[in-house]
Amino acid sequence: METDLHKALERGEFVVLYQPQVDLLTGKIMGAEALIRWQHPERGIISPATFIPLAEETSLIMQIGEWVLHTACLQNKAWQDMGLAPMVVSVNLSPRQFLQSDIVNTVRRVLEETGLQPQYLELEITESMTMDVNRTISILQELKGLGVKISLDDFGSGYSSLSYLKKFPIDKLKIDQSFVRDSTTDLNVATIVKTIIEMAHSLNLHVIAEGVETKEHLSFLQYNLCDEVQGYLFSKPLPAKEFEKQFTEIEKI
Ligand code: C2E
Ligand code: CA
Ligand code: CA
Ligand code: CA
Q1: Which residues are near ligand 1 (CB < 6 Å)?
Q2: 93: Cβ–Cβ under 8 A, 6 or more apart, which residues?
Q3: pLDDT tens by residue, 196-231
Q4: Distance CA 197, CA 221 (A)
């Protein structure tokens, strides 16, 4: 698979899907998360959970990561040029991409190349990237200096040091899907989710819940004043064309 991975970029076998992020107050789509897929000629669609860790072991993750960034920014710019309401597209950064590449210059260059205004790009980082606190803070500050938004993905799933939250210049918390899944059946988890939302708001952070699959999840999150939701209840990740078609439909709900 690793040899194939090398050729996949040249052959154009990667695609980016977009999953809507819905504002709970207005019901409008505020953004979309860009999620990569590999359309392998023999094996069919391969999940990022399978090949991203492999790519992460080699420097290939840098090229793949930049390709996703470029594709997502170009797509978002194209949507704006088509007259869709401007939204934020969020792109996942891998640990190696964040810590070892010249991520700040890459992001600056991609914004220039695509013509997307920085406020319409969000970068998702995870707690596993934040082990070197000072370095993380300085990279994040430089990225914020470009005008892009930062979100902390999978919040609660890892080391989750609450003290980081105050130190890191982030805009948004993404509550991990495992918490959302159990929030309606486990009272302790419900309390944790409620507390994460309150704490995030008191730190002036925006909160999004991912993995929202049921109406029960939705009402629980609505009741506890979560800002945004993302999950199969609204839509699976979609190819750009599908996303365009559904975009206006979902917005009317
Ligand atoms: P993630 O960043 O936590 O992304 C959320 C995952 O949850 C996505 O899986 C998404 O399709 C899935 N999901 C969305 N709604 C629901 C739901 O309601 N229920 C459930 N059970 N799952 C839902 P996906 O697309 O397979 O991606 C898996 C992981 O691969 C991502 O987790 C992310 O860590 C990584 N990944 C995906 N695309 C990229 C990329 O472009 N770059 C990097 N570095 N990593 C990526
Ligand atoms: Ca993510
Ligand atoms: Ca996540
Ligand atoms: Ca994850």
Answers
A1: 19, 35-36, 47-49, 52, 65, 68, 92, 94, 153-154, 177, 210-213, 231-232, 237
A2: 65, 103, 123, 124, 125, 129
A3: 999 999 999 999 999 999 999 999 999 999 999 999
A4: 9
DSSP output for 155-183: ETSS---HHHHHHS--SEEEE-HHHHHHT
Query: Which atom of ligand 1 lies closest to the CA of 232?
Result: 18
Tokens of 101: 């590449």
Q: In this structure, what DSSP letter does residue 183 have?
A: T
Point out the ligand 1 atom lying closest to the alpha carbon of residue 48.
30
Asked whether the ipTM of the predicted complex exceeds the cut of 0.90, the reply is: yes
- pTM, two decimals, is 0.96
- Report the alpha-carbon distance of residue 153 to residue 151 in Å, rounded: 6
How far is ligand 4, taken at its centre, from the CA of residue 6, in Å?
24
